[in-house]
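Lab meeting, item 3. Inverse folding demo.
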């Protein structure tokens, strides 16, 4: 998000209009306490697990630092290996 510092309510309204959202519903949601509570909860939950920005990639609940194709492949392989039963286990 190159222009994240220039995001303001006008810019958000413009993006919503460009996406052809129902602008009346969008405005109601933007000013809705229940929607705001969901956003606050999601931010709190993300911070609690170490998410500091977006996009963030997780594999099996673990943040993948520098999620290049190689790092993702390695993280997935490690998660799959951990989930396999040890040899001789039922």
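The presenter then showed the designed sequence:
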């Amino acid at each position: 998000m190159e222009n994240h510092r220039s995001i303001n309510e006008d810019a958000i309204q413009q993006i919503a209009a460009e996406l052809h959202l129902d602008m009346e519903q969008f405005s109601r949601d933007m000013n809705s306490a229940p929607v705001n509570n969901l956003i606050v909860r999601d931010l709190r939950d993300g911070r609690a697990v170490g998410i500091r920005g977006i996009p963030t990639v997780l594999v099996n609940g673990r943040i993948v630092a520098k999620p290049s194709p190689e790092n993702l492949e390695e993280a997935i392989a490690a998660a799959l290996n951990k989930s396999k039963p040890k040899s001789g286990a039922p």
